[in-house]
Q: What sequence folds into this?
């Protein structure tokens, strides 16, 4: 088969099948623009392969199958990208928490942030960062300047939604 014969056949098949292929792909990928792009990729594949290998017995099905395989590849690639971005986001969050808090809770009692150990004394911690901590016994740290014997209420008990927050620090550091 000559190149011009193959080109004419591909053009005829494309005129007949392009709308059907695009519609089928749109249902699959839920995006008309992407469906058209995938259908055109299948057309390019046909233009590359059919002059050498000949026109397949069912050219419309060949174009649809090629386009669907490309759609599946694109969906898998996007899912993999989303997973990797999620992993990177979690790693960045862990690095930020580690930089801010210096690691995890100290299991000997109290809370460790950076190289400072905080039990009842919160010297050097501002009020905003002190709210991120809770003692290992589930009670919040006292506010800066508050006597060590007095503890704040709010973090250890139910919050306004009635959700128990006693394990707040362990959840943050996981």
A:
């Amino acid at each position: 088969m000559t190149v011009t014969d193959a080109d004419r056949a591909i053009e005829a098949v494309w005129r007949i099948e392009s709308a059907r292929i695009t519609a089928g792909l749109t249902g699959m990928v839920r995006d008309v623009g992407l469906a058209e792009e995938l259908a055109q990729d299948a057309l390019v594949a046909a233009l590359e392969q059919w002059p050498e290998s000949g026109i397949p017995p069912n050219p419309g099905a060949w174009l649809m199958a090629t386009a669907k395989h490309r759609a599946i590849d694109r969906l898998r690639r996007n899912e993999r990208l989303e997973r990797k971005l999620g992993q990177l986001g979690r790693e960045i969050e862990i690095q930020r928490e580690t930089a801010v808090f210096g690691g995890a809770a100290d299991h000997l009692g109290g809370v460790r942030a950076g190289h400072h150990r905080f039990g009842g004394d919160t010297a050097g911690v501002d009020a905003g960062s002190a709210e991120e901590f809770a003692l290992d016994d589930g009670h919040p740290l006292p506010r800066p300047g508050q006597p060590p014997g007095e503890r704040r209420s709010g973090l250890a008990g139910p919050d306004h939604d009635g959700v128990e927050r006693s394990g707040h620090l362990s959840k943050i550091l996981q």
